[in-house]
Amino acid sequence: MAITDWPEGDRPREKLLQRGAAALSDAELLAIFLRVGVPGKSAVDLARDLLVGFGSLTRLFAADQAAFSAFPGMGPAKFAQLQAVLEMSRRALGETMRHGDALNSPGAVRDWLRLNLGGLGHEVFSVVFLDAQNRVLATEELFRGTLTQTSVYPRELVKRTLAHNAAGVILAHNHPSGVAEPSQADRWLTDQLKTALGLVDVRVLDHFIVAGSATLSFAERGWL
């Protein structure tokens, strides 16, 4: 049955307009983006197949063009549209972080990190550099590693922090395994980086671990 034959209150677009985007499932939101389905499947059916095929929205967003376009009903045009939507989201969240106190908008920081790190298949270590008022000066990916570990060098982090004349930093890295809990090595590294930055009077305000759509905050756990 085509979506146009559904009761009006069940159609994703009408449901969004009546009840807000938060009321929709992942498949319904994705269906609005897709607009149309394929022969024998509505846009919602196709969206569900995509989510099952890729495992989650996060993994779908992280898929490269070859993997995305190989899925029945998808192609370069849809891939380009999706990348444009994701980049607009990243830029909007980046503006939110830059135009206010990063500690007063933790949701924007978390969302930005999830979009940038959540679906990666390799570990990366990123840093958000902040001024004395906790406003974002810059964000950088400093280190990139394998599926299991990243080599993080305190000297390089201190060098980049001083280059930005930052007064504080928010550290972040991802766990491709999908488990956000830190290892002992993660906690040891955080202590080492905090000590190194403390020598140049720079504060570590938080360290986030991103695993898919989940994030863990060291500050919230009382580890900083």
Walk me through what this model shows.
By secondary structure, this protein is of the alpha+beta class. 45% of the residues lie in helices and 16% in strands. The protein has helices at residues 12-19, 26-34, 43-54, 57-62, 65-69, 76-98, 106-117, 154-163, 184-198, and strands at residues 124-130, 136-144, 168-174, 203-211, 214-217. Strands 2-1-3-4-5 form a 5-stranded mixed β-sheet, sandwiched between helices. A hairpin with a 5-residue loop joins β1 (124-130) and β2 (136-144). α2 (26-34) packs across α3 and α8 packs across α9.
Give the overall average pLDDT.
86
Task: Tell me roughly what share of residues is in helical segments.
Answer: 40-55%
Major sheet: arrangement of strands: 2-1-3-4-5
How far apart lie the N and C ends?
55 Å
The 3D shape can be described as elongated
Radius of gyration based on Cα positions = 20 Å
Order of helices and strands: HHHHHHHEEHEHEE
Count helical runs. Answer: 9
Given the helix and strand composition, which structural class is it? alpha+beta
